[in-house]
Specification:
six-stranded mixed beta sheet, binds adenosine-5'-diphosphate, ATP-binding
């Protein structure tokens, strides 16, 4: 089954002349670990914003977690897509804002109108999923290490039980140990049935963790294959 299907998609930002994405077609299967690679300006952020339901295409269509998106999709339907997809920003400082870890993780579930009991359970479950002790709940997220902050940001997204998890350069600024631990965690989440889409510049991470790689250049997909195939000489 496919988690994301994109067909003949074009996207242009308002008041610009050239397309940020042109003629994209691709399929991401459920439970794949996909890496999106490409230079700055190649269209990676625009592509994941479309998958996250933040923007809609000019032409072409997407199917994300069973929901269809095209140029005529209404805001409320885009919002449904947004709620089935979890987006972890590049730097946790962009995502964390509350005084305590608990409040931060509870923000999304509360926004979705869940009951107090459901919220508490989702916070505890999310902390467990990212391997953080429940005792951290009362701490300020900003007092944590870089790796822990990343985990809190991921927990905040997981608390909403997304079908698809998008991570934008999740290991940016982390040291080698924290990077390896975080990637292992992401792989574990992937093994537990979450489709993972990771934007990265680290080819080593692609080779080691991804099972599908999409390479972008100038708004186009220039490779859509397995890491093994991309990195082989033949
Ligand atoms: P990447 O994430 O690979 O760096 P982007 O998706 O951010 O690439 O950018 C793709 C193209 O769209 C670039 O040419 C970029 O300048 C342009 N672009 C990105 N965001 C905007 C915006 N908000 N307004 C206008 N153009 C944009
Ligand atoms: P909607 O109104 O469709 O729920 P929002 O943009 O208000 O869209 O929020 C969607 C999700 O994005 C939220 O459930 C939340 O998890 C996340 N989010 C929004 N703002 C923040 C924020 N400041 N910090 C962390 N997460 C946020």
């Amino acid at each position: 089954k496919s988690a994301v299907t994109i067909k003949d998609l074009h996207y242009k930002y308002p008041n610009t002349t050239s397309e940020a994405l042109s003629d994209i077609s691709l399929t991401i299967k459920e439970q794949e670990f996909v890496a999106i690679v490409g230079q700055t300006g190649s269209g990676k952020s625009t592509l994941v914003s479309l998958i996250d339901g933040l923007i809609k295409p000019e032409k072409g269509d997407l199917n994300v977690a069973g929901l269809k998106i095209n140029a005529t999709t209404k805001a409320e339907d885009l919002s449904k897509v947004h709620h089935r997809v979890g987006f972890v920003f590049q730097f946790p400082e962009q995502q964390l804002f509350a005084e305590t870890v608990e409040e931060d993780i509870a923000f999304g579930p509360r926004n979705l109108g869940w009951t107090a009991g459901q919220i508490k359970k989702s916070v505890d479950d999310a902390l467990k999923m990212v391997g953080l002790p429940v005792a951290l709940k009362t701490h300020s997220p900003f007092a944590l290490s870089g790796g822990q902050m990343r985990r809190v940001a991921i927990a905040g997204v997981l608390a909403m039980k997304p079908q698809i998890l998008i991570l934008d350069e999740p290991t940016a600024g982390l040291d080698t140990q924290a990077t390896n631990e975080l990637l292992k965690l992401i792989k574990q989440l992937n093994n537990k049935a979450t489709t993972v889409i990771m934007v990265t510049h680290q080819m080593e991470q692609v080779a080691r963790y991804a099972d599908h790689v999409i390479a972008m250049s100038e708004g186009k997909v220039i490779a859509d294959t397995t890491p093994r195939h991309l990195f082989s000489d033949s």
